[in-house]
């Protein structure tokens, strides 16, 4: 059976994005190599995410906090990409979203040198949730409409190593399983530039 055109397109367009955000190349090739139908995308990535989640929870039981954190963050990223633009089954997509949030939250709190913590930012009568890492002045990273805070982790070391804290926050509500905020956009000019 030939691969679904949507699977072929996803593989060709998303490989660099997945790998640059923490998906192991071997996992990307293994998971996508086994897929033929787009309808199986979320389940296949969720199964691979569960492997990393299990490794992380086992390492935590053994007292290996940093290793546990790395596995759990990776699991969160995999769950995120499992539901990434997967709107064919909203229940499946929402379940993957909730696992992404859980694993990322649990894992980022264990990372070094700057553990992350969940923050709630009140904004125009709503609450925007983010992950704060580091200390010092805070750089707020706003992912694009097809991104979330869970896939911004690789951008942080360049700022936290320069004594600036970072947070990234989800800024929309759409068919991704998030129910916390509506789409809002603001244009701003840099202060002090």
Protein architecture, described:
Helix 6 links the parallel strand 3 (138-141) and strand 4 (165-169). Helix 3 (41-61) runs antiparallel to helix 4 (65-83), helix 3 runs parallel beside helix 5 and helix 4 packs antiparallel against helix 5 (90-108). This protein is of the alpha+beta class. It has six helices and four strands; from the N terminus they run αααααβββαβ. It has helices at 5-20, 25-34, 41-61, 65-83, 90-108, 157-160; strands spanning 116-123, 126-133, 138-141, 165-169. The protein has one domain (5-169): Alpha/Beta hydrolase fold, catalytic domain (Rossmann fold). The chain has a four-stranded mixed beta sheet, with helices on one face.
Element pattern in H and E: HHHHHEEEHE
The CATH class turns out to be Alpha Beta
Mean pLDDT: 80
Low-confidence runs of at least 5 consecutive residues: 170-193
Q: Which secondary-structure class do the elements indicate?
A: alpha+beta
Helix content: 40-55%
- The H-level CATH homologous superfamily, spelled out, is Alpha/Beta hydrolase fold, catalytic domain
According to DSSP, the number of beta strands is 4
Silhouette = globular
Task: Please state roughly what percent of the residues sit in beta strands, choosing from under 5%, 5-15%, 15-25%, 25-35%, 35-45% or over 45%.
Answer: 5-15%
Please tally the helical runs, counting DSSP H or I stretches of 4 or more residues. 6
Give the tags.
Rossmann fold; disordered C terminus; 193 residues; alpha+beta
Element layout with pairings:
Layout: H1 5-20, H2 25-34, H3 41-61, H4 65-83, H5 90-108, E1 116-123, E2 126-133, E3 138-141, H6 157-160, E4 165-169
Parallel strand pairs: 3-4
Antiparallel strand pairs: 1-2, 2-4
Helix pairs in contact: 3-4, 3-5, 4-5
């Amino acid at each position: 059976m030939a691969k679904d055109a949507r699977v072929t397109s996803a593989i060709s367009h998303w490989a660099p994005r997945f790998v640059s955000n923490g998906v192991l190349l071997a996992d990307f090739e293994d998971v996508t190599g086994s897929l033929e139908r787009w309808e199986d995308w979320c389940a296949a990535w969720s199964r691979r995410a569960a492997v990393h989640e299990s490794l992380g929870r086992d390492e935590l039981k053994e007292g290996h906090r940093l290793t546990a954190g790395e596995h759990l963050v990776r699991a969160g990223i995999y769950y995120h990409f499992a539901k990434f633009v997967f709107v064919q089954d909203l229940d499946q997509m929402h379940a993957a979203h909730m696992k992404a949030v859980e694993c990322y939250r649990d894992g980022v709190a264990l990372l070094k040198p700057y553990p992350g913590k969940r923050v709630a930012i009140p904004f125009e009568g709503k609450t925007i949730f983010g992950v704060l890492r580091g200390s010092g002045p805070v750089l707020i990273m706003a992912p694009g409409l097809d991104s979330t805070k869970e896939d911004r982790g690789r951008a942080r070391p360049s700022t936290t190593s320069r004594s600036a804290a970072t947070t990234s926050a989800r800024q929309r509500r759409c068919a991704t399983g998030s129910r916390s905020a509506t789409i809002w956009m603001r244009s701003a000019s840099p202060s002090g530039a």
